[in-house]
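Amino acid chain:
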Amino acid sequence: MCSPTKLLAVVVLFFSLCPAPGLSQDAMDILRKVGDTYANFKSYDFAGNSQMMIEVDGVKYRMTLPQSMARGAAPDLPLSFQFQRSTWQKADSAVQVDRPHIGFSPPGAGFYDFARLPEGVKSARIFRDETLQANGKDTSCYVIEVLRSPHEASSEDAVPAPEMFWIDKVKYLVLRLSFRTFNTFNNGHFPRTMDWVTTFNSYHLNGPPVEWLV
């Protein structure tokens, strides 16, 4: 018969070797399901906003840009984006500021082509669970950290930064993503790096194309 001390040690070892609840599913399998989900949509329309963080002359700025993303009924049509007027703030303040006298490159469509999300992934891991609001409801998400080859928007000498994806556990929709882009311009008016967080808080699936897309 095991002593209470030995029994406790066995129990501790068992739980230390078992994955945490909700984190046992393979991250790559989740990414493949996301890819299949978006590839099978006839059309979709996501709305939300992107925030971009930059640093210029030692001052950090945050730009908020309302954003819509849609694909029409034809699966071979490219992704389409609609960006509305942006607002600028200092990163540590809620007060709006004039747009800094700098240029920046918007992220390429490759960051949002979720049908091809599994392609080029070097490693992926489930980072944590988190709940987001989508279509007015609390939605439980996997937060997955992905490392893959640089996008076309990155310069050749840029070190790929991990990307994060918040993925609906039931519908396998990407509701938030964060990533970094790199400027290729050798110009002091362009920040070297730009950190983006895009959040989609509403969506319609397999409906008629939205008016702005038509």
The longest helix spans residues 4-17. The longest strand covers residues 121-134. DSSP finds two helices and nine strands in the chain.
